């Protein structure tokens, strides 16, 4: 089985994820998406300019969203389901509900009325692919991974997500983001959902994943229920 380790390690580093609760609480509210997506006849007229967009594609509940590299959130009008079909084709083997992917599209902006979100009318999908630690527009706080057993973690404040993928168990867990307790450069996250609790301790210390020559600046210990998992973590902006 040793020859399979690089394969599983690459999956973990690319951030994996089986669909869990189809309607996790707080997704729309946390992203501050207005339920009123109506448009005025004047201010809501689409621009005639086809523009390029890059960011994270989120198929959340009854909306499809794009969070661009600046953190701006757009509602997507994708009548031909170009994004959805590409997203489904490119999902990793283990994924959680509403997992975001990196996307590059072109389209026309339709401005919203006051307090609403602008809409992008999608005309072309250039790319849809899973996230990686060095992906542009991926505004994670930390990602982490472990081997033997293989697991991964992503903490994404602007998506209101703490997600854990236990590859060995074939399970993906999605929790709401909670701000950490920070002391001496160490981070402690505590969160829960209907299925249980998770506690994540990230310490500023040298760490090696045991399978590559990468040296990490943080270690990570995750406890899901009473199951501990250990590995290394990457803080946004770290260079490997």
Structural commentary:
The chain folds into two domains: 2-24 and 136-235, no CATH class; 29-129, Beta Barrel (OB fold (Dihydrolipoamide Acetyltransferase, E2P)). It has 240 residues and is mainly beta. It is 9% helix and 43% strand. A hairpin with a 6-residue loop joins β12 (196-208) and β13 (215-224). It contains three helices and 14 strands. The strands form two sheets. The protein has a nine-stranded antiparallel beta sheet with strand order 9-8-7-6-14-13-12-11-10. Strands 1-2-3-5-4 form a five-stranded mixed β-barrel. The model is unreliable at 1-11, 13-23 and 33-42 (pLDDT under 50). It is elongated and about 50 Å long.
Number of structural domains = 2
Structural class: mainly beta
Shape: elongated
- The radius of gyration over CA amounts to 19 Å
**Strand line-up across the major sheet:** 9-8-7-6-14-13-12-11-10
- Number of alpha- plus pi-helical segments: 3
Give start-end ranges of low-pLDDT stretches: 1-11, 13-23, 33-42
Q: Number of DSSP strands? A: 14
Secondary-structure map:
Layout: H1 5-13, H2 27-30, E1 51-58, E2 65-68, E3 73-77, H3 82-90, E4 101-110, E5 119-129, E6 142-146, E7 151-156, E8 161-166, E9 171-175, E10 181-183, E11 186-193, E12 196-208, E13 215-224, E14 227-235
Parallel strand pairs: 3-5
Antiparallel strand pairs: 1-2, 1-4, 2-3, 4-5, 6-7, 6-14, 7-8, 8-9, 10-11, 11-12, 12-13, 13-14
